[in-house]
Structure formats: C-alpha cells, structure tokens
C-alpha cells in the first residue's frame, strides 16, 4: 500500500541518463530502487488504486452528506510526486509520446507497452552478443569488463547469467594463446567463479609479458625492398639489347625465327655470312673486361659492372640486432671481431679467405686479396 506517514516523498534526484529509445532496461534499473525505497511501487501496477474522492458522512441530525475523502488527498499527493519523478527522468522524444497521462499507473503502462517489443529485441541481441564476443585484440581487463557489462544488462532485463554460464562464455571467447588456461580450468573438479577466472587470466598475461620482455632483442628480418624502376629482378647474364642475349662465352644469339611457313622452327644464318661477321668482330678493339672484340670496347660490354646491381643486393640485406655479450665456445678455433678491445690475445689474419656481410660487402686481408 502507499505510504500514509506523510505527503512528502524522498525519491532522490532523477537518474542523470534520461530515458531514450535504446536504454529502457538501464533506465528501469535506476528508477525502480528509488520507488521501492519510498514504498510506492503499488502505484505502478495499480495495486494501490485511487480511493474515492468523497465519502458519505452522517451528521448529528442523522442526515448524510458527501465530504472530501482525506485518503484520496494523501494518495493524489504521492501519485503526482512519483509521476513528476518519472517525467523528469525522460528525454524530450519520449515525453512527446506520453503527453496526457495523468497518473503514475497510466504513465508506467504506456512506457512498458512502448518498449515491450524493443526490450525483447534488446534481450535477444544481448544474448547473441555475450555468446559471440571474442577477446581478439582487447586487453584481458577490457574483455572481462565487456562480458560483465553484457551479463549485468541481461540481469537487469530479468535474465540473470549464472557464474558457470559466464565462465563458459568467457572461455569460449579466448583465443588459442589461452589454451593452457582453458585446459587447466577444465581439469579442476570444483566450479570456478568469474572473478577467479579473471584473476587467472590476469596472472597468465603478466607471466607472458615477463617472458616476452626477457626474450626480446632477437633476430628481425626486414621486409624485402621493392626494386626501384624495375618490374622484376634482373640477371647479369643478359642485358637484353635489341632482343638478343649473350651467355658467358660471349656469343650472341644469332638464331632468328624463320618466316611464317607453318613449321614454327628457326633458321640459321648462312655459313658465309657467319664467317664474315667473325672477321668484322676481330677488327673491333678487344674489351678489357670480357676479352672479346666488339665496338667501343668496355663501354658497352655485357659484363660491365653496374652500380644498380649492388643496390639490388643491398635491398635484400637482413637487419638484425647485435648481441654484445661474449660466450665461451671450446669448439671454436678462431674468432673474428670488429672490436679489438674484446680480445685479450689477438693475431693478425694472413689468409686469403674473405667474409661476406649481409650487405654484400667483403672483409678480409687486403694484402692477400689485392
């Protein structure tokens, strides 16, 4: 029944988040505790219906008359305070749809009818969300907070999620990195709470973070650089001038497609023409690079060094972190280093071998490699 101790109700301030299209369940969760505290929830379902406005009173002369009912005055005072509290907690777009509702019961009924279908859709979406939510790139704390929020919304809608169900939902959303945690929990006979699960996941994350920090600084392969100005890699064996190539023997490809005669084969040059070409080639200066005879000498040699070739090799060099620590190795017979202060005993290398670095440059004994 409605409180009859006094007319003034202590409902507190209306919720800061006004009732709108998408937050009916949360709004209802904020409003109901205040109404229960004031003991006026009977006004919502009309359990505390309005008493008669007047009552029949018998006077001293034994006549009857209608007089105002004092209970109705108390009821109307409480009802209008609750009505005002609810209206103040609604957004303008919702207020426009409840104009003309003069009692708490009328207002509450209209609101529930307005959001009934939307509430059911919201519950369905929440159940789908809590089932399909994955941790992905979220941190463990953000993932657990999101799952807890979905569980709280379902509870507010009248479908609370039990601890075992929440644990199953959380474990289903973890990726393969947490397989060891899932296996450990599956081996436990006693049920685990969602809070305990969060503690285990947090401890696992801290452990993996420590292991990751201790193993950092290893070998890192750089992405292959794209050749500049080339659609594909080049070979030094062929330079492709005039559609003809040259192999290592220095001979040009003299074979050409024969005229279209249906055979699809090749026809060689006449022997006399080939002999004349050899005599003409010997009239050319000898190349200092390939020792062949061709016009202008080394300037157009197929084996001439090109700077672009070195750039292409360097483009594929791998970058790696240098480990400055020194480790004893009893199986090693020789050591090399670019920092002589690392060696207490050292001896100059007099051999002819060379060491190739990742960039393609060579290091060794200059005297023996000159």
TrEMBL record:
Residues 231-243 have a biased composition (Basic residues). This is Retrotransposon Copia-like N-terminal domain-containing protein. Residues 356-370 have a biased composition (Polar residues). Residues 244-255 have a biased composition (Basic and acidic residues). Residues 222-280, 351-370 are annotated as: Disordered.
């Amino acid at each position: 029944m409605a409180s009859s101790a006094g007319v003034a109700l202590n409902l507190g301030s209306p919720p800061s988040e006004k009732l709108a299209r998408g937050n009916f369940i949360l709004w209802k969760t904020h409003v109901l505790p205040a109404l229960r505290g004031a003991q006026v929830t009977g006004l919502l379902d009309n359990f505390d219906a309005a008493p008669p406005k007047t009552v029949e009173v018998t006077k001293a002369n034994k006549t009857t008359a209608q007089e105002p009912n004092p209970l109705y005055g108390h009821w109307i005072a409480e009802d209008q305070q609750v009505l005002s509290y609810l209206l103040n907690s609604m957004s303008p777009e919702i207020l426009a749809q409840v104009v003309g509702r003069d009692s708490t019961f009328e207002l509450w009924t209209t609101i529930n009818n307005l959001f009934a279908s939307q509430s059911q859709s919201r519950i369905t979406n929440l159940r789908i969300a809590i089932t399909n939510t994955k941790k992905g790139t979220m941190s463990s704390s953000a993932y657990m907070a999101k799952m807890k929020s979905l569980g709280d919304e379902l509870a507010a809608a009248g479908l609370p999620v039990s601890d075992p169900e929440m644990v199953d939902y959380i474990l289903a959303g973890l990726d393969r990195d947490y397989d060891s945690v899932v296996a450990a929990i599956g081996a436990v006979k006693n049920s685990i709470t969602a809070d305990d699960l969060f503690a285990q996941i947090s401890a696992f994350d801290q452990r993996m973070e420590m292991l990751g920090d201790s193993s950092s600084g290893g070998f890192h392969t750089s992405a292959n650089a794209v050749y500049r100005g080339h659609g594909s890699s080049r070979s030094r064996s062929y330079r492709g001038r005039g559609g003809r190539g040259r192999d290592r023997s220095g001979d040009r490809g003299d074979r050409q497609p024969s005229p279209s005669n249906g055979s699809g084969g090749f026809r060689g040059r006449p022997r006399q023409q080939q002999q004349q070409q050899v005599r003409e080639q010997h009239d050319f200066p000898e190349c200092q690079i390939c020792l062949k005879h061709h016009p202008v000498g080394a300037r157009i040699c197929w084996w001439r060094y090109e700077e672009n070739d070195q750039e292409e090799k360097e483009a594929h060099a791998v970058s790696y972190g240098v480990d400055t620590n020194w480790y004893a190795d009893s199986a090693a017979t020789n050591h090399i280093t670019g920092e002589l202060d690392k060696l207490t005993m050292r001896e100059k290398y007099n051999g002819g071998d060379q060491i190739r670095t990742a960039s393609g440059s060579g290091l060794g004994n200059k005297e023996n490699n000159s």
